[in-house]
Amino acid sequence: MISLDKLGLGKTAIIESIETDFLPLKLIEMGCLPGNEVSLLYLAPFRDPMYLKIDEAHLAIRTEVAKYIMVKPIS
Amino acid sequence: MIKTINITLIGNPNTGKTSVFNALTGLNQKVGNYPGITVEKKQGTCKLNRTTKARVLDLPGTYSLNASSMDESVVIELLLNKNDLDFPDVAVVVTDVENLKRNLLLFTQIKDLEIPTVLVINMSDQMKRKGISIDVELLEKQLNTSIVLISTRKKRGIESLKETLVKYRSISTSPILDPLTIDETYFKSLKRAFPNQSLYKLWLVITQDVNFTKLERQKVPDSAEFKTQSQSYLKKFQQRETIKRYQIINKILKETYHVNKENATDLRSRLDNILIHKFWGYVIFFVILLSIFQAIFDWSSIPMDLIDSTFVKLSEALNDYLPPGVLTNLITEGVIPGLGGIVIFIPQIAFLFFFISILEETGYMSRVVFLMDRGLRRYGLNGKSVIPLISGTACAIPAVMAARNIESWKERLITILVVPFTTCSARLPVYLILISLVIPNQRFLGISYQGLTLMGLYFLGFLMAIVSASLMNKILETSTKSYFVVEMPNYKLPLLKNVGITVWEKTRAFVVEAGKIILAISILLWVMASHGPGVNFSNAEDLVKTNAEYKNISPDELETKIASYRLEHSYIGILGKSIEPAIAPLGYDWKIGIALISSFAAREVFVGTLATIYSVGNDSQETIKNKMSAEIRPDGSPLFNLASGISLMLFYAFAMQCMSTLAIVKKETNGWKWPLIQLVAMTFIAYFAALIVYQILK
User: Fold this and answer.
1) Is there a cis peptide before residue A49, judged by omega within 30 degrees of 0?
2) Longest dimension (CA), chain A
3) Phi and psi at residue B443, in whole multiples of 5°?
4) pLDDT, tens digit, for every residue of B168-214?
5) CATH, residue A47
6) In angstroms, how far is CA B427 from the centroid of its own chain?
7) Considering CB atoms only, which of B64, B370, B377 is closest to A29?
8) Of B82, B408, B437, B633, which has the fewest CB atoms closer than 10 Å, so is most exposed?
9) What pLDDT is recorded for position B382?
């Protein structure tokens, strides 16, 4: 299990757990929930922000937030 | 009899909610602000059928009822306040067919408020291409509501939406989620304490950091008791609520919503591969910007010249036509040039918003935010600050307005406050004349010093914006937390109707709001320049004519001598003399003082004012320049030398000398506090920068 900011470019993972105290609720509402799939589609320079596909949503978040999402890579 | 009902449009951002609003109301809409805050309030009217009219309110886009921004607070505040004049008889939740699951989260929350809620599934024309099929009847049954499939792009479904809205009373108001399933103990005790209230509404009042009206607060007099649970405890419940809602939605969609991935085409990844490429992404963005500004300058120069000459001709014509007198002078020298000063900005504003709304509509703007966020973050700015900062090189007014796209209040405020440092087009005539006066026309390695100075001034503007942003980032406290979560929407062709309405709305807002203030100050300046105390002013003509020195000059020259004598003894001239002690250490005399004061109205007035003061009849640059370079100090050295020239340039680079910008900042921040702080701080910085440079160089 790794934190999401360590996920390789183009890789897909399953969200295992989220540190709810530090995550914006908006992110959870957009589908960032345990059990859902997350793929890292693109990275801006310096790996920040990250362009993700979480469940059905395409969104960008900063790495400081991605640290609080634990994932299990599947590909 | 005609009945009027209240309709409220609610939906996630990027669902085409505004297109639905535009399709319903057309130009019968007005945009205002919610009292006290800077969230846009869009309202309009439409006719549903022969007997029913509707007042339509377009609420700000929101992902859920758990507010994380000011925009979102507005939504909950309205939906919980039955006494609000805008409280909906029927709510319309607009969703995007492709993101139905996520959009339904908000729908289930609105439904739980026990308001009749219609579900609109927009972009239904995309279903076939994306391989989506929906069992609408079953979905209606499961969600216990009426569903309307529409496509604002293909203009389909609006009529059936109207029909459904007329029959709003038949829509069930039963809730979807039972709060007891979130946490039985907590919600049971809540129910015991307030047996007559809806549990979900109570829960919202308790958890939201929103300024509810007193009435709503009174419903939960001892809400403190239910807040005793630590913040993170309540947050856990909010998350559990979200998870519960998704479980219900997933179960419903499993039976009713199917995607056949094979039919889907992927425009997104093909475009994203280029547009947010680590190298080409930036190149493309730069090229797009360059073309936009080129277009703004090129395309608006013709209408701007036309407006300029029209207003001059209008003044002249009225001067000939109206009987001479104070009123005529006020109209031709105060009101008309004042109006011209407003109207002349319209082409630039309209073109800028035309391009910005196209970038927004296509979905490209989110990609720019993605590309630029990292670089701007450390200064307390946001990826979305790019557009205002660069628009500022044309004019700060539309740039301040463009900052509306930034959701975080703090980052938006910082952007608004630093934008006027960027070199706007009004500074250009001032810079050009000063540079030609004091910077030698020589070249170093083929690069001209004059061009280099101009480039340096542009660079200085950006630098100052960034430096002051990072300072304010450290000073400003913020009450609302802001998180950077940016949705990357699908690429779409822009809807011309939306673009047109945006351009119209923004331009109209500028003309009306900023216009009032520009007009008032122009009139004030005119009064001060055309009136003066004592005989020196009233007898200026006789005093100059009888002056032996001017015996042999032509009538034209005499005329300008009279004008400049009059200005010297007008109220504004006296003001210029009275501030001379303060500006002398900067290397300026009282005449420059007058120019400084009058260019508070707008920077470009500088050249015109000096023209009058140095009694130059026409304002062709060469003559003013010659007169300026001939101007000497009491000790015989030239007034405009390197030291005073650079000092003036720095003053114009940093000072807030634009009442139009102040007016628009007042409008955007809803009060005089920030524009006044901006005015004082920028004048302070300008004064000391000019002082230090002059004292070092002289």
Assistant:
1) yes
2) 29
3) -120, 145
4) 999 988 889 888 888 888 888 888 888 888 888 888 888 776 555 55
5) 2.30.30.90
6) 21
7) B64
8) B82
9) 82
Q: Residue B370 is nearest to which of A30, A51, A56, comparing CB atoms?
A: A51
Spatial distance between the Cα atoms of B404 and B665, rounded to a whole number of angstroms: 11
* Nearest neighbour of B370 by CB, restricted to A30, A49, A55: A49
Question: Mean pLDDT across the stretch B432-450?
Answer: 83
Interface touch A25/B485, C-beta < 8 Å: no
**Residues of chain A contacting residue B483, judged by C-beta atoms under 8 Å apart:** 24, 26-27, 65
Q: In this predicted structure, what is the pLDDT of residue B667?
A: 82
Confidence label for B221 from pLDDT (cuts 50, 70 and 90) = low
ipTM > 0.90, yes or no: yes
Q: Does B278 touch chain A (CB under 8 A)?
A: yes
CA distances from B636 to A42, B142, B645, B691, B697 (A): 66, 91, 17, 22, 18
Q: Which tens digits make up the pLDDT trace of B640-670?
A: 899 999 999 999 999 998 888 888 898 888 8
Lowest mean pLDDT among B64-73, B621-630, B649-658: B621-630
Pair B241, B105: CB distance under 8 Å = no
Q: Which two tokens stand for residue B404?
A: 């509306």
B residues 105..124 contacting A (CB < 8 A):
105
Yes or no, beta carbons of B66 and A24 under 8 Å apart: no
Query: Picking from B22-26, B104-108, B596-600, which range would have the lowest pLDDT averaged per residue?
Result: B596-600
| Cα separation, B666 vs B514, whole angstroms | 9
Give the type of residue at B135. Answer: D
User: Which residue segments constitute the domains of chain B, with CATH numbers given?
Assistant: 3-262 (3.40.50.300), 280-498 (no CATH), 512-697 (no CATH)
Question: How many beta carbons lie within 10 A of that of residue B539, not counting itself?
Answer: 15
Residue range of the domain that includes A30: 2-73
In chain A, the residue whose alpha carbon lies closest to the alpha carbon of B485 is: A61
Tell me the pLDDT tens digit for each residue of B682-694. Answer: 999 999 999 999 9
Residues B508, B346: contact at Cβ < 8 Å?
no
Cβ contact A59–B370 (<8 Å): no
Structure confidence by residue, pLDDT tens digits, B467-487: 999 999 888 876 545 567 888
- Select from B101, B377, B487 the Cβ nearest to the Cβ of A58: B487
Q: Which residue has the tokens 């807040």?
A: B227
Over residues B43-53, the pLDDT tens digits come to 999 999 999 99
Q: Which of residues B620 and B8 earns the better pLDDT score?
A: B8
CA B165 vs CA B8, B9, B352, B404: distances in Å: 11, 12, 37, 32
A60–B272 CB contact, under 8 Å: no
B36: pLDDT strictly greater than 60: no
Q: Is B235 on the interface with A (CB under 8 A)?
A: yes
Residues B457-467: b if buried by 16+ CB within 10 A, e if exposed: bbebbbebbbe
Total domains in the fold of chain A: 1
Chain A residue nearest residue B13, CA to CA: A30
Q: Check CB contact under 8 Å for B489 and A62.
A: no
B442-451's contacts with Cβ under 8 Å and 24+ in sequence apart are none
